[in-house]
Structures are given as C-alpha cells and as structure tokens.
Amino acid sequence: MQAQVIIWSEKQREFALQQVRDMPIDTNKPHVVTVAPFVKKRTNSQLALLWVRHAEVSKAVADYTGHSPEDIHEILKHKFLKPRIVELGDTIVERYSTKGLTVQEMTEFMQRIEAWAQTELELVLASPEDRRYG
C-alpha cells in the first residue's frame, strides 16, 4: 500500500502517524517515510494558459516555420527549462517537462516565454489578470 498524506490539521497528523504505526514491518520490503513541506504543483489553469500561448506563438510563426503548438511546446521547454537527466547504462537522455513544476516555477517559465515572445517576435501574449496563473 502506498499513501500520501497532506497534513493541514491535527486530525490529519494523527491519521499520518496511525498509517506509520499500522505499516507492516518486513525486513525484506522496507518502507520509506518522508516528511517535507507541501509544494503546490502547477495548476490546470496554468497549463491551459500555456497552451493558449503556444497556439499564439505557433500562429505568429506558422508562415515562416510551419511549427505546430506541440512543436512550440517542445522548443520552449528546451529553451527555458532545465533538463532532468535519465541514465541507464551508457544511455543518457535529457528530459524536459512542465509536469513536475510548482506553481511558482510554472509562472516563471511562462514569464520567460512572454518576455521572449515580446522581444524576439514582437508578440504580446494572452495574460490573465492574475499574474500567478493559478
């Protein structure tokens, strides 16, 4: 069994402690318990805005490049995100993804895209009133 408990109250803390107490102790299958501050992951509204922006960039450069919004997504991830390195034997792969970004990291990624579009393409992208996008 795998459980993740986000602790917001004393009742949830007690629940988490009870989960640890109830874990079977098996030396052949040890468990890991991690306690860390909760960090909110990117939001659905951030992701939706990101794809609106990719479509806008794609439309702006389509006559010159033919790039789809999916192409723009890949290009901008490579341009503005740090890769996660995945190794298996002598094979090394760099992966770029927004999936694990926090709300703040996603906001910063989209701000970089916005600044790049304004500077490089002279394009003002869609921007909601809430600058944190979520």
Helix percent band: 40-55%
| Order of the strands making up the biggest sheet | 1-2
Distance between the termini: 32 Å
Q: What about the largest sheet? A: 2 strands, antiparallel
In brief:
The protein is mainly α and 134 residues long. It has 4 helices and 2 strands, in the order H-H-H-E-E-H.
Describe the structure.
The chain has 134 residues and is mainly α. The chain has two domains: 1-38, no CATH class; 44-121, no CATH class. The protein contains four helices and two strands, in the order αααββα. The model has no long low-confidence stretch (mean pLDDT 87).
Secondary structure blueprint with pairings:
Blueprint: H1 10-22, H2 44-65, H3 69-80, E1 84-88, E2 91-95, H4 103-121
Antiparallel strand pairs: 1-2
Helix pairs in contact: 2-3, 2-4
Quickly list its features.
single chain; 134 residues; mainly alpha; 2 domains; two-stranded antiparallel sheet; 4 helices; 2 strands; 7% strand
